[in-house]
Amino acid sequence: MTRLMVPHPGHFPALKEIIEVKGAEDLKEVEEVFMGGSPEVMGSGRGVLHAPLIDEIREQTEYAHQHGVKMNIAMNSTCLGGHHLTFEGYKMLEWYFGELNKAGVDGVIVAEPYLVELLRDFPMKTIVSVLSYVDAPQRAKFFEDLGAEVITVDTNINRHFELLKGIVKAVNCDIRVIVNEGCLYRCPFRYFHYNLASHLSSLNQPHSPLFAPDFYFDKCINIRLRDPVQIIKSAWIRPEDIKEYEAIGIKSFKLSGRTKAVNWIIECMRAYSYRAFKGNLLEILDCPQMLRYMFYIDNEKLEGSIEQWKNCKKNCNECGYCAALIKEVLTYLKCE
Description:
Blueprint: E1 3-7, H1 12-24, E2 30-36, H2 54-66, E3 70-75, H3 87-102, E4 107-110, H4 113-118, E5 125-128, H5 137-146, E6 150-152, H6 161-170, E7 174-178, H7 190-200, H8 215-226, H9 229-233, H10 242-246, E8 252-254, H11 262-274, E9 295-297, H12 305-310, H13 316-319, H14 321-329, E10 330-332
């Protein structure tokens, strides 16, 4: 059965809203939620709007389990400043993983290979983050051998179907794709942006600033404002196209956006559970969501485009498909 993992901002009322909608609308594919861990232990790939302590994690996990939903904790920092390799760092992580396990947490999402190995000592599921940049069968096999039970592949290969097929065949663990991330395809800022986020979301690295201008995000948005075809080239997956991934053996899908408002998360959860969305695609994409005030991309007009992308060679300078498509599907909105 296909499984959908849903982002959770971290505070209990948001979890209750998500689970209430899941139950009321019988969204059976929604099997898991994930939220950030404690920034005192380590950062993650996103800012943490609400950082629950262990007692609250236990309480939320128990509530989720009562409603048939699994709880995962994201600890997917891409830079720990070397602290995790010290004896003190090791003992802190060992203690924290132990506390998460006692709290009943089902899985931990990590990017650092060292943590993948460390989690082998705990019964919680080891989930490799998209920020491990698994983009080939060989890399997937490496992570599986380290102890991965679920691998979230690099979004850059979401439309590389032959690669995805190869990864599915190469490993026995679950392969997961993120469906609604709208980052630039092959973004030159990606590694550095997530390193910045990892430092800004951590409270245990003394030399990390509490705040820094997000140069990478501003550049990313600016590029798409000047060249909207980059939105089409991004690796998002339409709700209607989930079936194409199921056909190649992928049964696990993840929604991005744990820093967003819960009503937005629920809208995305509905769209991907029902496999249908009518309206501006930018309404359900994480990252360039603010562009919905400037651009309207008609999701229904994108029907059938997956057939091109399934076989695309990704030589954009020779192809021109996306450049032609953007002219058909995009409307510029008037600024009031």
